[in-house]
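Page 42, continued from yesterday. The earlier attempt failed because a stray header line got pasted into the input along with the sequence. Redoing it now with the clean sequence only.
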Amino acid sequence: MIDDTRSVLTEKMPGEEKKSKRLRERISLSLPVRVTCRETVNHEWTEVSRLVDVTPFGARLRLKRPTETGRLLLLTMAMPRQLRSFDHAEDQYRVWSLVRNVKKIDPKKHHGAVMEVGVAFVGKRAPESLQKDPATRYEIANLQAGAWTVQENAGEVVAEVDDGSDKREESRHTIPIEVMIEAFGDNRAAPEAESTVTENISRNGAAVFTSLELERGRFVRLYTADGVEVLAVVRKRSVRADGIARLHLQFLGSEWPL
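This time it went through. Structure tokens are written below.
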């Protein structure tokens, strides 16, 4: 069980000297939190972390696995009752949370964490559509009964269609770069990895040849021998007429240095 906290320290965070636009000021609170994420129907992980700060409507925390804006995470913690919107009598506060922003961070400086994540609390139950497709991304609809409500992201864009055409406004460069791709495993299995090359690449995404069976919604690390590294999400896995599979990736939290 995650331990409860005995005190809540109300402090201004760096950069908040000016008037805040938040509904409530952030509270600096290093509270243990269990984070559960279902990336796909067949892949789920759980990680124990700590909050950086919190309000009744959201929180900030650091994770050793990447995620992306629009994804839903289940947070379980001994939240102080005065900050809860429901389950005031329960020991643990289980709240679905929408990822609103992500920032890549240095794991050497943050005890192995690769991302700092800001989330909005969206209620006690997840949307039914999440059960059918855990890779669904959502956006804020409105504030209701002390928590944000969500709707499916209307701007969802499929990376590429199977005929090889590209619908992006940003141009991809046909450059074969030798890379290592490593999928973040679950809590029991070692990560899947392979050495491959890119078919095309831009600052914000790439298509890479692959033999890995990774579904849409999985998160990976892409890096080169000379030290370039990005985190990415699989937007699509396709097999073209040449019989070769590709992973279509969108980079998260940083750009590829073209």
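Notes: The longest strand covers residues 43-55.
Reminder to self: strip header lines before submitting.
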